[in-house]
């Protein structure tokens, strides 16, 4: 089945947005819109996928917009070396199409070729299995320059059905366990062993990243989550000579005592705790588990506390941008959402906390799965606004930029900074 018309050329909506925002690189506008609309792989594009050379869909703790686990490219690379972390999307939802042109994959919009892309190359350790017989790629996965560890594929906020309204971690756990042989909880020693194998490929990776669902249990709430991270980071740290190594964790909003333990007892260098939406009323409605166990104001306080532990420019929080506009409780306009979000982001920036966002991808197995995300203009304006705050308050974002993550249009703009 051919879906694209390789000879068709004409102005696209992307060109209009690029003209409106000349300070934002065209490739970043394209990347943001591909994240916003998703992709569909044609048969010809899938024929270019080589499982021995490319990464295939694997160990995400969240699902795809079409709700499937299937043999597809893990994601895409643009010609400037930046990543597009995107999700396969049904054709009827008007995604971009990845199709073949002159023997290589290209992004097409309405049959118009926009950019040549490449599939993520598979690291060497992907071909190996662990001591327990699990494929190593199901224990540690990779972005082009980062090693990902997803040690716990459940979130205990769902124990009483109070998980975040955009989250499909539970349904993805069930699918991944059955279809891909992915353990629900990883053994720390085995994680360390796989990291050791990954690091045998010199110069390939620049950081180690961990994230899991929240674990509310422990002597104090979330102590068990902190203990588990410490165990894993100890095993990872065996492979580094320095006491600290380039690393990031996305965890729950921990107390200052818990944060100090993470910093003092491990090689961890940066900390992220995703508040998801910068508005207390929407936080309470969309993230009821986080509201129940910690609360909006306390979440922000703990982010600021983390700056005292890790230092300015080493702490951030993430937004699932677009949920603040989802009905029936969302903001009435994109202008209002932008103003309110940036006001609260500036409050955090003044105190050393950076804010980044991912483009919300409504997924079918979530309470918000039937909603639509925001316009491309909204996401570009939000990216410019958050980037401007980091410039204003001189907050570096090197631990979560285009090299180390690739999922934040706003932190991609850090490439333009002279320092």
Topology:
Layout lengths: L12 H8 L5 H12 L1 E3 L1 H5 L28 E2 L5 E2 L11 E6 L2 E6 L2 E5 L1 E2 L20 E4 L2 E4 L19 H12 L7 H11 L8 E5 L11 H15 L9 E4 L5 H10 L4 E3 L7 H7 L1 H6 L2 H15 L4 E7 L12 H17 L3 E6 L16 H17 L16 H4 L7
Parallel strand pairs: 1-4, 9-10, 10-11, 11-12, 12-13, 13-14
Antiparallel strand pairs: 2-3, 2-7, 4-5, 5-6, 8-9
pLDDT averaged residue by residue: 93
How many strand units?
14
Pick out the low-confidence regions. none
Tell me the Rg in angstroms: 20 Å
Q: End-to-end span in angstroms?
A: 48 Å
Order of helices and strands: HHEHEEEEEEEEHHEHEHEHHHEHEHH
What is the CATH architecture annotation of the largest domain?
Alpha-Beta Barrel
Envelope shape: globular
Percent of residues in β-strands: 5-15%
Judged by helices, strands and strand pairing, the structural class is: alpha/beta
In the sheet with the most strands, the strands line up as 8-9-10-11-12-13-14
| Number of contiguous helices | 13
**Fraction of residues in H or I helices:** 25-40%
CATH topology of the largest domain: TIM Barrel
CATH class of the largest domain: Alpha Beta
Question: Could you walk me through the main structural features you see in this protein, from its secondary elements to its overall organization?
Answer:
- With 419 residues, the protein is α/β, with parallel strands linked by helices.
- It has 2 domains: 13-119, no CATH class; 124-416, Alpha-Beta Barrel (TIM Barrel), CATH 3.20.20.
- 33% of the residues lie in helices and 14% in strands.
- It is built from 13 helices and 14 strands.
- It has helices at residues 13-20, 26-37, 43-47, 169-180, 188-198, 223-237, 256-265, 280-286, 288-293, 296-310, 334-350, 376-392, 409-412, and strands at residues 39-41, 76-77, 83-84, 96-101, 104-109, 112-116, 118-119, 140-143, 146-149, 207-211, 247-250, 270-272, 315-321, 354-359.
- The strands form 3 sheets. A 7-stranded mixed beta sheet has the order 8-9-10-11-12-13-14. A 4-stranded mixed beta sheet has the order 1-4-5-6. Strands 3-2-7 form a 3-stranded antiparallel beta sheet.
- Helix 5 runs parallel beside helix 6 (223-237) and helix 7 packs parallel to helix 10.
- The longest helix has 17 residues, at 334-350.
- The mean pLDDT is 93.
């Amino acid at each position: 089945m051919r879906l694209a018309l390789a000879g068709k050329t004409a102005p696209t909506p992307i060109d209009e947005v690029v003209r409106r925002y000349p300070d934002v690189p065209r490739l970043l506008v394209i990347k943001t819109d591909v994240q916003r609309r998703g992709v569909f792989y044609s048969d010809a594009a899938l024929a270019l996928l080589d499982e021995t050379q490319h990464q295939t869909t694997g160990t995400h703790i969240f699902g795809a917009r079409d709700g499937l686990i299937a043999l597809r490219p893990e994601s895409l690379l643009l010609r400037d070396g930046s990543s597009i972390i995107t999700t396969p999307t049904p054709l009827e939802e008007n995604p971009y199409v990845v199709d073949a042109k002159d023997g290589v994959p290209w992004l097409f919009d309405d049959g118009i070729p926009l950019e040549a892309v490449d599939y993520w190359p598979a690291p060497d350790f992907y071909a190996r299995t662990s001591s327990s017989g699990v494929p190593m790629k199901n224990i540690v996965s990779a972005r082009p320059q980062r090693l990902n560890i997803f040690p716990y594929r459940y979130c205990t906020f769902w124990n009483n059905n109070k998980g975040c309204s955009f989250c499909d971690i539970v349904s993805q756990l069930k699918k991944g366990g059955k279809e891909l042989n992915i353990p629900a909880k990883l053994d720390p020693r085995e994680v360390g062993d796989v990291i050791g194998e990954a690091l045998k490929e010199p110069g390939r990776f620049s950081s180690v990243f961990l994230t899991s669902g929240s674990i509310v249990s422990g002597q104090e709430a979330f102590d068990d989550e902190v203990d588990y991270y410490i165990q894993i980071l100890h095993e990872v740290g065996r492979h580094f000579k320095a006491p600290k190594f380039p690393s990031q964790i996305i965890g729950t909003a921990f107390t200052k005592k818990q944060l100090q333990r993470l910093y003092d007892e491990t090689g961890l260098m940066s900390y992220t705790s995703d508040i998801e939406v910068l508005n207390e009323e929407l936080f309470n409605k969309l993230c009821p588990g986080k509201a129940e166990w910690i609360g909006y104001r306390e979440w922000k306080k703990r982010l600021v506390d983390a700056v005292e532990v890790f230092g300015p420019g080493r702490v951030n929080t993430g937004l699932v941008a677009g949920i603040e506009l989802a009905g029936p409780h969302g903001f009435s306009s994109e202008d209002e959402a932008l103003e309110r979000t940036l006001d609260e982001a500036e409050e955090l920036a003044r105190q050393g906390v950076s804010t980044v966002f991912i483009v919300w991808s409504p997924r079918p197995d979530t309470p918000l799965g039937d909603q639509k995300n925001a316009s491309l203009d909204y996401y570009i304006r939000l990216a410019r606004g958050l980037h401007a705050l980091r410039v204003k308050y001189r907050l570096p974002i090197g631990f979560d930029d285009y090299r180390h993550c690739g999922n934040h249009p706003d932190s991609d703009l850090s490439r333009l900074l002279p320092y």
